[in-house]
Amino acid sequence: MQHNLAIFASGTGSNAKKIVEHFKHNPNINVSLVVSNKADAPVLDMARSNGIPILVIGRPFFYSTEDILKIFNNFPINFVVLAGFLWLVPSYLVKAFENRMVNIHPALLPKYGGKGMYGMKVHEAVKAAGETETGITIHYVNERYDEGDAIFQAKCQVAPDDTPEDIAQKIHALEHRHFPEVIEKLLKPQNP
Predict the structure, then answer these.
(1) Which residues does the annotation mark as catalytic?
(2) What is the pLDDT of residues 54-87, one digit of tens each?
(3) Does pLDDT of 5 surpass 50?
(4) pLDDT tier at 191, thresholds 50, 70, 90
């Protein structure tokens, strides 16, 4: 079966880039579309340089219509990856891609999740709490921030002298290593 992925990202897209690189020569898994809510997001340049179509969305389009589903049919998208996308996904899209939409979060959920917990805010909270370990969570997307069923977690140590920036580097290493592999495992046909 051919899998056509849409990657949603709001920023630089380092995870999106790793996913694109991972599947570049995969005959069964193709990154078919990159979606962003920011017209100037660097992830869009990465998509263009890899020949991947892009879609920039605004709030009225995303939340007041279901037109994105029509656009998805043109590609035809059958799996969605959130890789640093900061908007809550509307229920119509969650329902259309139930168990076929995943997100990566830079902490060990359920800790440090929810609205407003992203990027450096998470690492600062981990540091402020004096945690000795943190990590990543890859989970299915539901209609609430960071509350979908967990698929995979990976941990790393937090040293007493680690800054939030140090923690961010450790988390990025985990994300880049594991996210493409977990997506691939989810998309491989299951042996009967």
Answers:
(1) 105
(2) 999 999 999 999 999 999 999 999 999 999 999 9
(3) yes
(4) very low
Overall CATH class of domain 3-187:
alpha beta
Residue identified by tokens 């042996």 is: 191
DSSP, collapsed to helix, strand or coil, labels residue 72 as: helix
- Count of beta carbons in the 10 Å neighbourhood of residue 153: 16
Q: What is the pLDDT of residue 190?
A: 58
The CA distance from 74 to 113, in Å, is: 34
Residue 129 phi/psi, 5-degree rounding, is -80, -10
Pairing mode, strands 54-56 and 150-157: unpaired
**Residue 60 CA to its chain's centroid (Å):** 22
- Domain boundaries in the chain? 3-187
Q: Which helix (H) or strand (E) holds 98?
A: none
Angle in degrees, CA 84, 31, 142, rounded to 5: 45
Write out the two tokens for 81.
């990856």
**pLDDT at position 1, please?**
85
Using a cut of 0.85, tell me whether the model's pTM lies above it. Answer: yes
